[in-house]
Structure formats: structure tokens, C-alpha cells
Design goal:
OB fold (Dihydrolipoamide Acetyltransferase, E2P); about 30% strand; about 260 residues; Rossmann fold; alpha/beta; single chain; 17 strands; nine-stranded mixed beta sheet
Length: about 260
């Protein structure tokens, strides 16, 4: 089964890891300069580095659709610079998953593939996709929605160990992002994690630096640029998160149900 995933950030990567583990061939599409924060667990890094491995699954940058097919033939995940998912017309996938997480639909249609799954707010099952998967932390995380939409975006990050908005680091100015610390570093409130145009971006709480934009990314004031995990477990920075794994399970359920892959 061939699945195209729009987006290649950490949550999309969690989805891809679960699909790959179930035997699906996966092609991912992202922008040329991804703004992924949790880069150590994101296949979008293959665009910058050429290859990226997460939990033993390797993804490789593909310059075009033909190269993507060759990568799939090796049992790896292919990552294209293809923000509009133009590859869909050439690949004719069995399923399309929109995991851009833009909180709105950026061009996915229910007719794009036999099974179309929208991830998070911005999609309506039965209208622009066949199913929606809930992304809001809590009781319904990972639930497949067959009619209607996911819980609307509140703009407030989910609570982890008592911290919500304060665990997100935001760019202090406009300019080039220059990290000072590394993902996986133990940090304390007040530590400088990066600079933008010479202005420091300081840590807001104690914990582990779980995410940080890549060097040289252009940012604007207030843009999400880092993430601190107050639980302080360094190993969590290098494996798929509980949220991404739950959402990935929901996507896998939806894809299998819609394609009838397990029916006798």
C-alpha cells in the first residue's frame, strides 16, 4: 500500500513510522526550508541533511518522483520538496494523509485518493476528507472521526507536567535563527537557547530542550522556535512522542478501514 503524507514534521513522522511498521510504503512532502522544531524526530531533516533516521526507520531526500520510487524500492521512506503534493497525480497513492497541521486545509481534497485522512482541526470528514484524526491532548487524542471535525484549535499548547504555553520558546525578533544550545540539553529558566539578530532567546522553564529550529532559518517575532519538556527525560528527545504515536495509530486505523486492507 502506498501512502503520501503531506508534512514531514515530528507528528507527521510519528504517523509515517507507524504506517511503515505496518508495511506501507510512504512518501512525504514538505517545504524547501522546513520550520520543524522537534528536528531529532522529524523526517523533514532529510531535506536538509540528505537522510534522517527515527527509531530505526530511515528516510531519504528524493529530488523527484522517480527517485522517490527508487527509495521506496529499498524499503525506505522518501521525502520530497513538494508543498502542494503535486506528486499525487504521478504516484496515484492508495491513501493521502494531510499532516501539515496548519489548523486549516491548504488544498487537500476528498478526491485526491481512495482514502484521504485529515489530521487535526481544519478538516471535515465527509466534505474534504474521508476521516479526521483528533490531535488535541486528552481523552480523545488519536480518535478517528468519521463525521465532522476535530476539536477546534485553542491556540494554547497542551499541558505537560503542569506547563503549557510557558514550555514553548518563541523568536524574540526578526532575522536568522542561530542556536546556542542543542536538542537534548538540560536547561534552566534564563539560559540562552539561541539568538536572533543578536537578541537572546531565553529558556522559560527548567527541563530538557526537546526542540529547536535549525540554524539559519528565517524567523519573525513570536514565531515558535523551541520547546522545553519539563519532565526532564533526555531520551524522549530522540523517540516519537506519545502524542505523535497516538495520532499515528489513529491514522493507521483510518487508512486500513478505508482501504479495506485487512478484509478477507
Amino acid at each position: 500500500m502506498l501512502v503520501v503524507v503531506r508534512g514531514a514534521g515530528d507528528l507527521a513522522t510519528g504517523i509515517a513510522v507507524r504506517l511503515h511498521a505496518a508495511g506501507c510504503r510512504v512518501v512525504m512532502c514538505d517545504i524547501a526550508r522546513p520550520t520543524t522544531v522537534r528536528r531529532t524526530v522529524a523526517f523533514s531533516e532529510a531535506i536538509r541533511l540528505g537522510t534522517m533516521e527515527v527509531e530505526g526507520v530511515r528516510a531519504r531526500f528524493a529530488a523527484d518522483v522517480d527517485k522517490a520510487r527508487a527509495i521506496l524500492a529499498k524499503g525506505e521512506i522518501a521525502v520530497l520538496v513538494d508543498p502542494d503534493a503535486a506528486c499525487v497525480s504521478k504516484l496515484s497513492p492508495d491513501a493521502l494523509v494531510d499532516a501539515i497541521l496548519a489548523k486549516r486545509n491548504l488544498g487537500t481534497h476528498i478526491t485526491d485518493a481512495p482514502a484521504v485522512v485529515g489530521v487535526g482541526p481544519g478538516f471535515t470528514a465527509g466534505l474534504d476528507c474521508h476521516a479526521v484524526v483528533e490531535t488535541k491532548r486528552g481523552h480523545y487524542l488519536g480518535r478517528v472521526i468519521w463525521e465532522g471535525s476535530a476539536i477546534p484549535n485553542t491556540g494554547v499548547p497542551g499541558i505537560i507536567a503542569g506547563h503549557g504555553a510557558d514550555r514553548v520558546l518563541r523568536a524574540p525578533a526578526e532575522g536568522r535563527f542561530e542556536p546556542v544550545r542543542e536538542i537534548g540539553d538540560v536547561v534552566h529558566a534564563g539560559d540562552v537557547a539561541a539568538t536572533v539578530a543578536g537578541i537572546p532567546m531565553t529558556c522559560t522553564i527548567d527541563g530538557v530542550l526537546r526542540g529547536l529550529l535549525a540554524p539559519g532559518v528565517s524567523v519573525t517575532p513570536g514565531m515558535k522556535a523551541g520547546d522545553i519538556d519539563p519532565r526532564g527525560v533526555v531520551e524522549h528527545c530522540f523517540s516519537v512522542s506519545d502524542k505523535a504515536r497516538a495520532v499515528g495509530g489513529g491514522v493507521l486505523e483510518a487508512v486500513l478501514a478505508l482501504t479495506g486492507a485487512l478484509r478477507g
